[in-house]
Amino acid sequence: MMLSFFDQFMSPTYLGIPLIALAIALPWTLYPTPTDRWLNNRVLTLQGWFINRFTQQLLLPLNQGGHKWAVLLTSLMVFLITINMLGLLPYTFTPTTQLSLNMGLAVPLWLATVIIGMRNQPTAALGHLLPEGTPVPLIPVLIIIETISLFIRPLALGVRLTANLTAGHLLIQLIATAAFVLLPMMPTVAILTATVLFLLTLLEVAVAMIQAYVFVLLLSLYLQENV
């Protein structure tokens, strides 16, 4: 029984071909494309407003050098939100529940921010490893601790996104299974369970958007330290 709960997180295959690539590429076909008309429809207007507001909020603490990352971070944000939201639909697969995919996104982007900091301002980048005014006996210990915390950052990015989405999907499946089991025996309790399931689904919609925003926000904070 427990194995069937985790089957939803297995990467589906068709004729031996993993379908995770299709699940990643499909969301891009759902976005409305801009037109040459002077006036856009409501969907395009709403999409443009959302992207503009998000970009302004994201780049507000960054200096001019960090604005080069606007297209990358905004595209990543929209991509993650779309994948997370589509994963809440029945009989769908959520690629962001795979730690390998999240680490594949987190490690290169984190490494790029570190390389930019070491290239542009190596003294300031290395200065983060040793806070000012540290007592001399604590210098080796603090350098080791700060170095470990630096390398844990991409792991924290990937694990946070994976754990939150996985826990939400598991909880939804557990409550849905309980509602179906209780329906013939205790209809009143089953209806209450279904109500809880509906509220939890709304919460998971919010979590799907918030986790995508947190992922990109933390990357922008790492970038802020190095530009």
Please provide a brief summary of the model.
The protein has 227 residues and is an all-alpha fold. It has eight helices and two strands. It has one domain.
Number of helices: 8
Number of strands: 2
- Order of H and E elements: HEEHHHHHHH
Poorly predicted ranges: none
Roughly what is the average pLDDT, rounded to an integer? Answer: 84
How far is the first residue's CA from the last residue's CA? 50 Å
Strand fraction: under 5%
**Helical percentage:** over 70%
Class by SSE composition: mainly alpha
Radius of gyration: 22 Å
What is the 3D form?
A: globular
Strand order of the largest sheet: 1-2
Major sheet description: 2 strands, antiparallel
Count of the separate structural domains: 1
What does this structure look like?
It is built from 8 helices and 2 strands. Strand 1 (13-14) and strand 2 form a beta hairpin. With 227 residues, it is an all-alpha fold. Helix 7 (139-185) runs antiparallel to helix 8. The chain is globular. It has one domain. The mean pLDDT is 84. It is 71% helix and 2% strand. The chain has helices at 2-6, 20-25, 42-59, 70-86, 99-120, 122-127, 139-185, 187-226; strands at 13-14, 17-18. A two-stranded antiparallel sheet has the order 1-2. It comes from Nematalosa nasus. It is found in: Mitochondrion inner membrane. Keywords: ATP synthesis, CF(0), Hydrogen ion transport, Ion transport, Membrane, Mitochondrion, Mitochondrion inner membrane, Transmembrane, Transmembrane helix, Transport.
